[in-house]
Design brief:
This protein is of the alpha+beta class. The chain has 4 helices and 7 strands.
Length: 165
């Protein structure tokens, strides 16, 4: 059974980029534009990450191979001060259905509650299992619109959750 680890480790950026590229191409038809946006965002984050507040939450298997990720970005210059941006939450296909998403979210929300006044994320309609998980952890849909920010037209959504202190 995979376990959770906190903090960046070698290969984390590659896992996040590769898994996002493969999953969203396979299930949603996203292409190179999407993968380039993920790569640019990851590179920007990695260059300014503050280890005392920003967090990688990773699921690793017995061979120490990363099989899941969730990043909390508390230093995103484009967000309100004191808020956390939940980013790059994904599990590889073989790691789904084992409760790892729940564990990653619980760890991230505990960190958020201790270090931020709120958390927000963007996603799109149709990712129903993820939406249920977000809502179980207190996220509320606060806006949605048709857009192609990721290179493919989808119903983009914005969720927000106040910290529970």
């Amino acid at each position: 059974m995979p376990r959770l680890v906190e903090g960046w480790r070698p290969g984390a950026l590659g896992f996040i980029l590769g898994e996002h590229g493969q999953y969203y191409a396979r299930h949603w038809g996203f292409g190179a534009f999407f993968e380039a946006r993920v790569a640019a965002g990851l590179a920007e984050f990695a260059g300014r990450m503050v280890p005392s507040t920003d967090r990688f939450f990773l699921a690793v298997d017995d061979a120490e191979r990363i099989v899941g990720s969730l990043v909390l970005d508390l230093t995103d210059p484009g967000q309100p001060e004191g808020e956390a941006h939940l980013r790059w939450f994904i599990l590889e296909d073989g790691a789904r259905g084992q409760g790892l998403g729940e564990k990653l979210m619980a760890a991230a929300m505990a960190h958020c509650d201790a270090h931020a006044r709120a958390c927000w994320l963007t996603t799109f309609a149709g990712l129903d299992a993820a939406r249920r998980l977000y809502e179980r952890h207190g996220f509320v849909l606060i806006g949605e619109e048709e857009a192609a920010s990721w290179g493919t037209k989808v119903r983009e959504q914005l969720f927000r959750r106040p910290a529970r202190r």
